[in-house]
Amino acid sequence: MLWLSLISRTHHFVIFETDCQQQIFLYLGTMINTYRFRAESKQDVLKLQRILRGEYEISPVRGGTSGVEVHLESPFTIEEIIRFIESLPNSNVMYQTIDLEEKYTGEMNHARYRNINN
């Protein structure tokens, strides 16, 4: 998948190329938010990436623990992203760790726990 971001003074264009189809999204005055979260595996992130467009950076969790850490840039709010995550089976780690980059700790937010292990 090709991801290209073009920024002008007044508009933010995001272009995704998937399966030879080009989809162009124009965000007028929309701020791109930066999030971080953990996931049990890269496969979990790839499932999210199929339904939630954005720019993803995936890296191993530091300290030798299993899982991955994700940096995501998206125009969606955290509430909207959580709804996407809730639609995926076995996504508790993503669900409980996602936060805006400046608030991210990497720790599970147990107050946010819901049984979404389908």
Task: Briefly characterize the structure.
The chain is an alpha+beta fold.
Tell me the overall shape: globular
Main sheet: strands, sense, barrel: 4 strands, antiparallel
The succession of helices and strands, N to C, reads: EEEEHEEHHE
The CATH topology of the largest domain is Alpha-Beta Plaits
How does the helix and strand content classify structurally?
Answer: alpha+beta
Main sheet: which strands, in order across? 5-6-4-7
Number of strands: 7
Helix content, binned percent: 10-25%
Tally of DSSP helical segments: 3
CATH architecture of the largest domain: 2-Layer Sandwich
Low-confidence stretches: 1-12, 14-27
Computed Rg: 15 Å
Oligomer: single chain
Termini gap = 28 Å
Number of folding domains? 2
Averaging pLDDT over every residue, what do you get? 78
Q: How large a portion of the residues is in β-strands, by DSSP E?
A: 35-45%
* Level-1 CATH class name of the largest domain: Alpha Beta
